[in-house]
Amino acid sequence: xxxxTSCDELAVMGGSPAFSDTLHVGRPNIGDRSEFLERVNGIxxxxxxxxxxxxxxxxxxxxxxxxxxxxxxxxxxATVALEITIxxxxxxxxxxxxxxxxxxxxxxxxxxxxxxxxxxxDPETHSIDPRRVESLITPRTTxxxxxxxxxxxxxxxALAEIAGRRNLRxxxxxxxxxxxxxxxxxxxxxxxxxxxxxxxxxxxxxxxGGAVATNDDDLAARIxxxxxxxxxxxDNVVYIGTNGKMSEISAAMGLTSLDHLEEIITIxxxxxxxxxxxxxxxxxxxxxxxxxxxxxxxxxxxxxVDEQAAGIHRDMLLQxxxxxxxxxxxxxxxxxxxxxxxxxxxxxxxxxxPETERLAERVLSLPTGTAVSEEDIVDICSIIRLxxxxxxxxxxxxxxGKNT
Length: 404
Prior knowledge:
The protein is α/β, with parallel strands linked by helices. The protein has 2 domains: 7-28 and 261-328 and 367-399, Aspartate Aminotransferase, domain 1 (Alpha-Beta Complex), CATH 3.90.1150; 33-259, Type I PLP-dependent aspartate aminotransferase-like (Major domain) (Aspartate Aminotransferase, domain 2, 3-Layer(aba) Sandwich). Helix content is 37%, strand content 14%. It has 15 helices and 14 strands. It has helices spanning 33-46, 54-67, 78-88, 104-110, 130-133, 156-165, 217-226, 248-259, 261-278, 307-310, 314-323, 342-345, 354-360, 374-389, 391-399, and strands at 23-24, 71-75, 94-98, 115-119, 141-147, 169-173, 181-182, 185-186, 193-197, 210-214, 285-287, 301-305, 326-327, 363-366. The chain has a 7-stranded mixed β-sheet with strand order 2-10-9-6-5-3-4, sandwiched between helices. The chain has a 3-stranded antiparallel β-sheet with strand order 11-12-14. It has a two-stranded parallel sheet with strand order 1-13. The protein is globular, with a radius of gyration of 22 Å.
């Protein structure tokens, strides 16, 4: 693609889109197709499609070894995994969570008539601010859910100290953090339990799926019962339960993805470095950093857009990128507290969440993964720089409805 050099060449100004095919955030990574199909043929030959089959068993063993945990229970998806784990932990009443997260986090509580109490975030880490947690604890509080946003651990030790001192359960939503570590220890082994997402849009996927990791033997036993209707053996139901099982076909995809985990992370890291180089010293935007010696999966390339310094609002930049078929995303807009049913339940929550409100207006996630090349990223960065350079013109064109 010939790099665009003038404002008139931008698609929002009447030019042609930079990309004929759309570039997405989280387009699925496939791994090796032949390896996957070989596993599928084995599943079909065995005619064992679900109910703790050979692939699920192997998948769980490999996850336990990778994460360094005693138990890893594969699930049909991360939302059901959260719901089951919350119930298995005995959470009731109120649980403190960030609003700056995917809506599945509070939904997994509200679905069970547990009140999510929204806590503001640290503007530097984008994760729940432990300094604000203490003031939200009431006699009805039974737990805290921290979210490892962007694959970066939240303040684990600070949250663990509060939970331990106040006798609260501590669960981590690690949907973004598979393959990451904290102080040399893999995410998955902290708190009472941690929940991973293996949804198709995650860098590591099982088509649809999730898992619960824990070192608590009793908790793991309850979760295993609850994910399979409470069956403890043939015709022997001993506990309340639901259907949270992972299928063999999903586990086969997970095993194939595990075989190529480091390869995918290497591509993500390469892409992140390309963005960091292409957007270095651009006024008004900040690329969320990955720092230190810990492992990261680099599955999210996240910008903060400062409207005053950049000369354009994040949403105008988003529209300009969409016009070029660069399908950047606003994560997590507008904040869970502004979605139903929470905006009706807590109409004044925004006043208590100033950092969440501020960040929800600034964050932009850019395409990455195996479907995006370094050349694509050079072009994306060039377009971002051109849009910011002509922020007033682009804003005026969009405000006046040009090419929309």
